[in-house]
Design a protein that fits this description.
Elements (H helix, E strand, L loop, with lengths): L1 E6 L4 E8 L7 E9 L6 H19 L3 E5 L7 H20 L4 E4 L1 H9 L6 H11 L9 H39 L1
Parallel strand pairs: 1-4, 4-5
Antiparallel strand pairs: 1-2, 2-3
Helix pairs in contact: 1-2, 3-5, 4-5
């Protein structure tokens, strides 16, 4: 499975592509940051984020895009920019028919480090170790994007089995009511 992880942000939108399957060594295919100038008009910044993500989608052809689920922060301005960049990433994927998965920061941290309360340095260190890199990707947004991709690769099999079980249960319950 090839996953593009997106750590949304207006100034720095982390992007990283990881390929692999759960239980096997993972491969880093690319990592970077889409940057926009803080003093630019919001519409132009969102357009720049879109163009950057489109370039990553063109170059790496992921099977899925994993985006950090926006959570409530104290700074409304920050959360709005993050949500807008997140929506752009989801739109780019949807336009191409690529499935999107959302993961909370604590889900990602728990999947990669074993603790949902891990700090950025711990996440960076584990991404470095898991992808057999010489040094943690910089800035932290890039490492976070890789962590999102890793999280999805590892969680997807369990999530798929759970969805199948729920669908089977629902189908059997519906059959029982109509019989």
């Amino acid at each position: 499975m090839r996953v593009l992880g997106v750590d949304p942000g207006l100034t720095r939108c982390g992007v990283g592509v990881v390929e692999g399957v759960a239980g096997r060594p993972l491969t880093l295919l690319g990592v970077g940051v889409v940057r926009t100038p803080a003093d630019a008009d919001l519409s132009h910044r969102l357009l720049a984020v879109e163009q950057g993500i489109e370039e990553w989608l063109d170059e790496h052809r992921p099977e899925l895009v994993a985006v950090e689920r926006v959570f409530s922060q104290h700074n409304v301005r920050t959360v709005m920019g993050t949500a807008q960049a997140s929506a752009v990433a989801m739109l780019c994927a949807a336009r191409r028919g690529i499935p999107v998965a959302l993961h909370t920061p604590s889900e990602v941290k728990a999947a990669v480090t074993g603790s949902g309360r891990a700090d950025k340095a711990q996440v960076g260190a584990m991404v470095t170790r898991l992808l057999r890199l010489a040094a943690p990707p910089k800035p932290a947004d890039a490492a976070d994007a890789l962590a999102l991709a890793i999280c999805h690769i590892w969680r997807a099999p369990a999530q798929n089995r759970l969805q199948q079980a729920v669908a089977l249960h629902t189908a059997n319950a519906t059959k029982g009511r109509t019989a």
